[in-house]
């Protein structure tokens, strides 16, 4: 049995645990003796069918909310919030600041789905599972994916609260042989060997710089290279110095595998990092990064970021950027 609850003040609906747990779904995922468990195209279709039965339109835009950035989902008009624990085959959020719900609605007039909470490798999920929602978004019809994250600033010119438009990444986990596309390739999603040299849409980055300037954020934005480590610990001084030498401007614990999965299935991708802490590269410093600080900075910057995301989205679609 399924129940929609109306949310105060938003004119929307909320589907939470317990309200639809009775919905039976059959697990058709496969276990390969050599490589272990994987989702199949068919099992993902079950998730898609479930979501289609709850939401009366198809989203064109996807937004992944980073740590402390769940409030971006408040940009949606007429939200329909569906808790991850109601959705067939969906992993569960375990991290503070990641609520664990898909929120459908209209952002700048465009049908959009926000992931209020992402999945991380350090939670114990393999990368292919962390990225499962991206394939779900693709199957629902999402063409443009906005990925956001909280990251430590490696570039000494970055200040806490700055925004970095990601122009490229260094896939350190991939260097170690860990990649979300590992395992059998399903050509219905994309090719076995996808290119990654244009993973971040250049036109959107150009527009993002203009929009940031127009709304008064011009002096707080940068372009840069993001890298991801597995976490959950923050980095040592020696590790951070090494990352700086490699050419990374910001470090986090997510995003890279999501970008790879999204590009594999031909989505248009835009990513920004909120610099929530300065990476400590001096042994003398007594400062310590913390998840609380990361979430606080997200909260402090939420109004500017909401305004930025709404305006950027509007202009992307007005100018048909990245429409394939
Ligand atoms: O989900 P993101 O990448 O935004 O979160 C970063 C990485 C860790 O999950 C967390 C550490 O505070 O912030
Ligand atoms: N790995 C990593 N992730 C972060 N997320 C937010 N800040 C940081 C950081 O300093 N390091």
Summarize the structure in words:
With 324 residues, this protein is an alpha/beta fold. The N and C termini lie far apart (39 Å). It has a single domain, classed as Nucleoside phosphorylase domain (Rossmann fold, 3-Layer(aba) Sandwich). The longest helix has 28 residues, at 291-318. The model is unreliable at 1-10 and 18-26 (pLDDT under 50). It has a 5-stranded mixed beta barrel. It has 8 helices and 13 strands. Guanine binds next to strand 9, strand 12 and strand 13.
Query: Taking all residues together, what is the mean pLDDT?
Result: 92
Shape by Cα distribution: globular
Each distinct ligand: ligand LQZ7MJT6, guanine
What is the fold-level CATH name, i.e. the topology? Answer: Rossmann fold
Rounded to the nearest angstrom, the radius of gyration is: 19 Å
Query: For the record, what CATH class applies?
Result: Alpha Beta
Name the helicity range. Answer: 25-40%
Give the total of beta strands: 13
Largest sheet: 5 strands, mixed, barrel
Summarize the structure.
It is an enzyme of class 2 (transferase). With 324 residues, this protein is of the alpha/beta class. The protein contains eight helices and 13 strands.
């Amino acid at each position: 049995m399924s129940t929609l609850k109306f949310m105060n003040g938003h004119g929307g609906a909320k589907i939470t645990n317990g309200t639809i747990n009775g919905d039976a779904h059959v697990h058709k995922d496969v276990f390969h003796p050599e490589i272990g468990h994987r989702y199949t195209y068919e099992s993902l279709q079950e998730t898609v069918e479930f979501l289609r039965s709850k939401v009366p339109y198809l989203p064109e835009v996807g937004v992944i909310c980073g740590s402390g950035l769940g409030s971006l989902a408040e940009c949606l008009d007429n939200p329909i919030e569906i808790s991850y624990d109601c959705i067939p085959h969906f992993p569960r959020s375990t991290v503070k600041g990641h609520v664990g719900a898909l929120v459908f609605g209209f952002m700048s007039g465009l049908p959009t789905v926000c992931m209020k909470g992402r999945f991380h490798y350090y939670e114990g999920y393999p990368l292919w599972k962390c990225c499962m929602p991206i394939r779900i978004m693709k199957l629902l019809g999402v063409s443009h994916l906005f990925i956001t994250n909280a990251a430590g600033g490696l570039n000494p010119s970055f200040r806490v609260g700055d925004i970095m438009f990601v122009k490229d990444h260094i896939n350190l986990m991939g260097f170690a042989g860990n990649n979300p596309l590992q395992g059998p390739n399903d050509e219905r999603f994309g090719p076995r060997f996808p290119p990654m040299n244009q993973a971040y849409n250049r036109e959107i980055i150009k527009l993002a710089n203009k929009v940031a300037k127009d709304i008064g954020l011009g002096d707080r934005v940068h372009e840069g290279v993001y890298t991801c480590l597995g976490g959950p610990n923050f980095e040592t001084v020696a590790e951070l110095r090494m990352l700086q030498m490699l050419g990374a401007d910001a470090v986090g614990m997510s995003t890279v595998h999501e970008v790879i999965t999204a590009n594999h299935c031909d989505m248009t991708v835009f990513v920004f990092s909120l610099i929530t802490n300065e990476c400590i590269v001096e042994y003398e410093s007594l400062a310590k990064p913390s998840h609380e600080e990361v979430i606080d900075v997200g909260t402090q910057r939420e109004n500017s970021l909401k305004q930025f995301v709404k305006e950027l989205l509007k202009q992307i679609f007005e100018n048909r950027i990245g429409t394939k």
